[in-house]
Amino acid sequence: MVEGINNDEKGNITSKTFSYNELCVATKNFHASNMVGEGGFGRVYKGRIKSIDNKVVAVKKLNKDGFQGSREFLAEVMILSFLHHSNLVNLVGYCSEGEQKILVYEYMANGSLEDHLFELPQSKKSLDWYTRMKIAEGAAKGLEYLHAEANPPVIYRDFKASNILLDENFNPKLSDFGLAKLGPTGDKTHVSTRVMGTYGYCAPEYASTGQLTTRSDVYSFGVVFLEMITGRRVLDYSRASEEQNLVNWALPLLKNKRKYASMVDPLLKGNYPARGLLQALAIAAMCLLEDANARPLIGDVVTALGVLAIRHVQVGKQKSTKETCNEQGEASWQMNLIE
Fold it and tell me: The Protein kinase domain covers which part of the protein (predicted)?
């Protein structure tokens, strides 16, 4: 990743360089009261940069001995300096002083998608159906930009709910590009690389062979989309053994439309369009196909989701979700999406 970008874009990094002291001031010495997130990579703090009109930012301080090393840090700085899209998080700048490796992003007021799907406190309102579809569409657009518009194409490699950040209007932006990889060019169909990413989200062919394509990201998208529809984590060891792996639990149900309503997140309380559920689960099923070549391109997924994200005004008494689901024909997923 680093070598490819260096060769193409050397010397064009536009992100601002911050001193460690400046970021200490911005976060009040990385005070616990400013911490807004924590993971294996380190901690994220909310801060204000005085030199940029007191701009509110998110400061990701990487663990010195954490998973994201110097190479991944450099890859993230590179990719977010060269690639810009409304559905990719904006890198304000970075700090690299001695052992300190810190990334400074635009602040995303609504945290991550993960924060709005799982273990919600009673005081927190769950996302409605159309907001979920809007988030899915925007996240897919971010992937589409990486796959189809970036030159050379970029494979994200770590698509998951915690890496999808949400602004004040719940517009999604992909974050955490430390594992991103330059995709195949010319006649090549894949790139071979050490298997990285988060267990449960990795495409089966990538996990078993290390062969990576843009359709590996499509599989990961399907997993996250399934999480958004069901409200279930990809791995949940608190559930019965046959339900712990989301994909393994869902695949048999996806073959029976009469089971679709039982898959939906209970927090939606039945408030979703029956036809929309059919189409959404059809998209998820296509993205999760074991044969990578049979999966759709992410651009096709974006087109399909654009229809689902439109909030239709419903007039008159509607049939119940179960009634309507049970009445649907066995049309292909493509026909569902066209209608």
Answer: 30-315
pLDDT at position 41? 74
Query: Coil, strand or helix: which one is 302?
Result: helix
Of residues 186 and 193, the one with the higher pLDDT is 193
Return binding residues for ATP: 61
Q: Residue 158 catalytic?
A: yes
Fold held by 2-106: Phosphorylase Kinase; domain 1 (3.30.200)
Check the CA dihedral 234-297-76-194 and report its sign.
Answer: positive
Q: pLDDT digits over 258-274, tens only?
A: 999 999 999 999 999 99
Tokens of 170: 């719940």
Compute the distance between CA of residue 119 and CA of residue 2 in angstroms, rounded to an integer. 37
Q: What is the pTM of this model?
A: 0.84
Q: Which of 158, 176, 217, 265 does the annotation list as catalytic?
A: 158
